[in-house]
Fold this sequence. Notes:
Chain A is an all-alpha fold. In chain A, about 75% of the residues lie in helices and about 0% in strands.
Amino acid sequence: xxxxxxxxxxxxxxxxxxxxxxxxxxxxxxxxxxxxxxxxxxxxxxxxxxxxxxxxxxxxxxxxxxxxxxxxxxxxxxxxxxxxxxxxxxxxxxxxxxxxxxxxxxxxxxxxxxxxxxxxxxxxxxxxxx
Amino acid sequence: xxxxxxxxxxxxxxxxxxxxxxxxxxxxxxxxxxxxxxxxxxxxxxxxxxxxxxxxxxxxxxxxxxxxxxxxxxxxxxxxxxxxxxxxxxxxxxxxxxxxxxxxxxxxxxxxxxxxxxxxxxxxxxxxxxxxxxxxxxxxxxxxxxxxxxxxxxxxxxxxxxxxxxxxxxxxxxxxxxxxxxxxxxxxxxxxxxxxxxxxxxxxxxxxxxxxxxxxxxxxxxxxxxxxxxxxxxxxxxxxxxxxxxxxxxxxxxxxxxxxxxxxxxxxxxxxxxxxxxxxxxxxxxxxxxxxxxxxxxxxxxxxxxxxxxxxxxxxxxxxxxxxxxxxxxxxxxx
Lengths: 130, 335
């Protein structure tokens, strides 16, 4: 077991340093890349927090959809092959729901401020209320 | 002067030899943006007064390796020819002042006029100074695309025909190469194979007509179409839809065209300027392809990081923007 700080704390400390101390002293391209670096660390923080449970949910849905077990990578590859072959399509029960939920979880980590994420999340909430 | 590039003196010599009345040159300033080409701003002192210019130059001066995302660039010398042809047809674009020659020792590129205006979407979409002109922008963009699509480029042999089905096959192959299974992309490819058809007509297409590459002015609106490096021959719908993809709306999701207007306004401007009467449904098919293509371009830019071609944090992080196009495809295809 590793000592403190936790992985999340390490990444947060690095991001906060870039945002609060480094960026105010930078200009031009270097400032731009520092902002990108801080955003990249924020992705890492969100993935540390929610990545594992999201992957579990994705795997459970894939197992049900494909009727087989395997690693997350194997199951995604199998789904791609079957979509590519036309064996699974939007008529297939569960596919649309799976793709929506999986993508929402991904974008919640990668880019929660993205407008397309907000529209899709709002729609999913409305769907859940019905 | 310590941050001045090593080609500065060579550039000045070349311009003094080829342009009229050049007396001096201010410091070169590297502009951000233009991820695949270097862009430098500078000013020449000439007999007729100061002249504001832009240098577009291949990274490090050398030719492109084609790993930066698209692999379809025509080369900076041909880009200059395409701009001149489009300008001849009345399209607003910066005049090319000089195309660099190998003996100039500056690298590959060209010098063009610097046009006043704004390319930053967040200002164009939100700043009060653009409020008056904003409602006109979609129509103006439609008219500009009609001008591009009616440009005579018969003398520019480097332009290749790459239509919808060809691009779909090309991008599928590239997606497969990256070996990252993405079920949403597989579904989009399957959907498009049934719908993305060969073009009614083959024309010049700009192929990167979107916020960031369009110079807008608070009084006149569209002042210049920039970044012609991906120009090719193909389906006009490629341009009409590219500016509609959600990634280029910068948060103004309700305004399909660049976050500032509607498809209907854009198509009306297109027809009024002599363009073909395309339907919003035809645009939507290409919008799906545009989102998919941008997603794969994000993967390509990450590949440039992974393979060591460009180890910048930007190239690494952009791989995680691929999922924004997945959510757009989910919104477009699954509703």
